[in-house]
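Extended Data, record thioredoxin-dependent peroxiredoxin
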Amino acid sequence: MEKAIDFCLPGIDEKGNEINFCLRDYLGKDKDIILYFYPKDDTPGCTTEACDFRDNLNILQNYAIVVGVSPDSIESHKKFKEKYGLNFILLSDKNKEVMKQYGAYGKKVMYGKETEGVIRSTFIISPDGSIKKAWKNVKAKGHVEQILKFLGVKS
């Protein structure tokens, strides 16, 4: 299995406190890490996906830590978190470096036109740091259900 690339990014924890998140600090625990990359705070698709994680966190937190990453600022994350009551970690990848390392940034086709941007992607990283599952170009609606199925959890 492929190993997850270690990284450190600034962000907001589940309680809304500013943190510096390093992947290595969360490995070795008894839970997987659901690392998901999304384009922009408070846009329709990203809000749908974030609220889906929020609404299923009571189940997911038994198996994994949820971490969302976008190029948005910490200030933007704070507003997004407060507006929708998001109860998981959000990280800011302003330079899109981590996104590029994970293949979650690059060329994509939107409305028939090729553009460059964030490719909505999710990775499940096991406690030993290996990538258990990777989804690329995910649809926001219904994606958390796919994750629950993969984890063998009834939603």
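Summary. The chain has one domain: 9-20+29-150.
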